[in-house]
Each structure stands twice: as C-alpha cells, then as structure tokens.
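To whoever is covering the structure queue this week,

Two jobs came back overnight. Logging them here so there's a record in the thread.

Job A:
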Amino acid sequence: MKNQINCFIPFAGVAQAEATVGTLRETNLINKIYLLTTELLKEEIPGCEVLIVPALHASAAIRVVASRSDTAYTLLYTKYTTLELGLFALERMIRIMGDSGAGMVY
C-alpha cells in the first residue's frame, strides 16, 4: 500500500502547512502533496508542489485537482487548520473504499 494518495491541502501559512505535511509524511501512503493557494508563496515547503488557484472552492480549483489526481486515491482537505489524523486513519479509509466499492469517503 505505498504511494497511493495524492494530497491537496490549502496553504494558510508555513506553520500550518509544515505540520499538516509532517502528519501526512508519517504514513507510507502519500505519493505527492500539493499546496493550494491563491497567490505566489514566498516560502517553500520541502516535498510539496504549489498550485495557484483562484479560490479554494472554485470550479477551476477542482479542475486543477482533477488534473493532478493520477493515483488510486485523492485526499482533498478543505480546512485551513492543521490536519490531525487518527491512528491508521488513511489505511482504514482505503480499506473501507476497497471493501465497499465507495467512490468517496469522509
């Protein structure tokens, strides 16, 4: 179960992004992490690609996410707070999707 998820997270600041990226990197499931932002970033977060979108919830942003979703699973995080995952949360979501055939879990 390696590198199965491309993650898209909104950029709200370096501290928030670094904490969320660190949480995601703790699993062995992540392929790529994309930071969604409405403007150029002065800071760089190692291991992340920046995607400039007009607004987080805009149709154009969803099209950008869809164009980069080239793995078995896509994680789209829509909050500006730090993501905190429970124990084996992503593994459980993948198992539920596989077992149920669901197109989306949340």
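Job B:
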Amino acid sequence: MIYLEVKLPDIPGSLIELIRPISQYGGNIYGILHHHDKKINNMIPVDIWFELSEELIQVSLENIKKDLINKNIQINKISVGSKNKVLTFIITGHVFDTDITDTIKRLDSKNIKVLDLHAKFTEVDEISSVMMKVEFPDVMKKFELINEIEKICKEKNLFLIRS
C-alpha cells in the first residue's frame, strides 16, 4: 500500500490531475480523503491510498512523482509498504443522521483510515447500513480499534457488526 499526502488547489479538475498519473502507471486506488475543513490559501490537503504491482513499484512511483511535480501538485508525504492492518465492519442505525463525515474524521484523528465505504440507503426515517473497510497502524491493537468504533457507536446510538 502506498500513502500519498498532497495539497491541491480548490478548483474543478484538480483531483482528476492527481488521479490520472496514478491510474496511468498502473495504480489501484483504495481511498481518497479531502480535508476541506483544513483548507489554507485555497489549498486542500488530500490523502490517497493506492497499490502498485511489486514489479512496477519503483519505476511507476518515480513516474507518478515526476508527473505530479510537473503539474505543480505539492507532495507533502509518500510512504510505501505501510505496516498497517485492515478490518471490515458494518454499522447500522441512523448512520447519516448522526453525521457519517464526523465518524470518518474521528477515526482519521486516531490514525484510522477509511479505505472503502459502502452504504445501503433507505427511507429518511429508517435505519441505514454502512460497511467500512479501515486501515489502522500496526502498533494499534485490534481491541483498541474496536473500542474506538464502539465508543462512537454508543454516542450515536448505532449498532456495530464485526467479525
């Protein structure tokens, strides 16, 4: 897994300019997180997680970096082969009424990154279900992650289903 942290101008098409070279050089994108709440001087921090095949990683990553620099995209951080663990779980309840964005930001503040999110929408007054795939640091124990998720669920009156 490759983690890339950049700053993009808050203008239409910026995200496409970031994604294009990753795709062009064989990257498989797992997640993108815009930090609109951290915008400074019209620049938005963006985190992106993607994979490159092992045999292409060196050349492809160099080409991606070169293309991003040529497009004046500010690269703040690149980390390759992070030693993180992944967990998939489902949250049910009034997930959207209780602000799913807040839930994601709270997980992110604990260095828990949402890689994938699938939602089943229902009527506004009915419960919804959201499946999340998260990545968490190797130093964090699985029970610590689950405790953090359960704490959020308890506050928001949501139900956690996990393996």
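Note for Job B: The CA atoms of residues 5 and 47 lie 5 Å apart.

Please reply-all if you pick these up so we don't duplicate work.
Q.
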